[in-house]
Amino acid sequence: VGRSDEVNQKSLSAAPSVGSAQSPDINKIIDTGADLVFVNDSLSDESRAKLDENKINVVNIAVAGSQKQLETTYTTVGRILGGNTVGAAKGEEAYSKLISQMEDIKSKVTAVDNNAALNTVCYMYSVNGKLRLTTSGTYGDMLLGYTGCVNVAVNIDENKVEVNTLKVANPNYLFYSDEQTLQAIKDDSVLSGLSAIKDGKTLMISADEMNRQGLSAINTLNKMVGFIHPELAVKDSDNGSSDTSATEAVVKSVADDYKIKLDDDLSLAPDDENDNVKAMQQRLFDLGYIDDEENVTGYYGEVSKTAVSDFQSKNGLKDSGEADKETLAALFAENAKKK
After folding, report:
1. Same domain for 265 and 197?
2. Where does 73-204 show beta strands of DSSP type E?
3. N or C: which terminus of the chain has fewer CB atoms within 10 Å of its end residue's CB?
4. What residues are paired with 131 via a beta bridge?
């Protein structure tokens, strides 16, 4: 068993590398004892010919462009490895397991946010310097759908980004493939005015992450969901790190604006009176949970307790009226939900 350099998931890192996907080291492939190699369209004709000369079967597996194609890919791989009956059934079972996990994630989103379906999102990337959108019916659209949000790029030609259409759709969240794409968006006079850009509700999801079609696709989905709903952030099962590093950076920047330092020991409760309470109250006022700015006093009374309770309910947190560590992190996240 071996892998190309592009296969960077931790769960597959133990397999020896055989070079790049385009021009692998044929001798290394031979040394693994492999008699079957799965490739994509990037494999060069020269490398393909060398594999054929060494009687190593080459099977081309294209990246699925839709959910239906994904199912076909799983069934096809299963059939190749295990036969038309047993293998195909195992492939279908693996596909069903993947989709079931995605549906579970979406169910959690719905459980913490009854209005999740009102959130809108889009994914933008660049091809030869031109902006592109992940449109409806594609594999990327499937992933966006499992975040619980609605992809605004419906009935839009991915080869031509209609900026005025996007302006009307005005997505709440925007994912992008790389920094060059984000800069191109910010440089556009119309796109730079989108709510997601102005509110900082943007997150980089690389093209590699967006195209992963094994169980590591769950990591990509969790990363997006954890950004939209910080309370649902989970550990990345592939690399052991939090999916919300970008979210945490946003939390820190917003907290700095309110002159409050969030750490593991900070929590606030009724009858507390200090500058941290005042910062919390100001944030609650800015988000609409405290109606009158005169209640931004620094004393944690009934008004503050009610406001915190309302915020917790709105953001899928335990409704206690006390600002624990989790509540404060969600409150000072730039994508905290307004009342």
Report:
1. no
2. 120-127, 130-133, 150-151, 173-176, 202-204
3. N
4. 126
State the burial class of residue 36 (Cβ atoms within 10 Å of its Cβ: 0-12, 13-18, 19+): exposed
Residues 305, 226 within the same domain: no
In this structure, are residues 28 and 12 in contact, taking their beta carbons and an 8 Å threshold?
A: no
* Domain membership flag for residue 106: no
Is residue 202 located within the same domain as residue 137? yes
The CATH number of residue 314's host domain is 1.10.101.10
Residues 6+ apart with CB under 8 A from 176: 123, 124, 125, 182, 185, 202, 203, 204, 205
Torsion 222-224-227-228 (CA) sign? negative
What's the pLDDT at 275?
Answer: 95
Q: What is the pLDDT of residues 110-145, one digit of tens each?
A: 888 877 778 999 999 998 888 999 988 899 999 999
Q: Using DSSP, how many helices (H) and how many strands (E) does the chain show?
A: 14, 7
* Residue 245 DSSP symbol: H
Q: Among 20, 37, 60, which residue terminates a domain?
A: 60
What is the pLDDT averaged over residues 241-267?
64
| CA pair distance 220, 283, nearest whole angstrom | 30
- Tokens representing 26 are 């044929």
Does residue 191 lie within any of the structural domains? yes
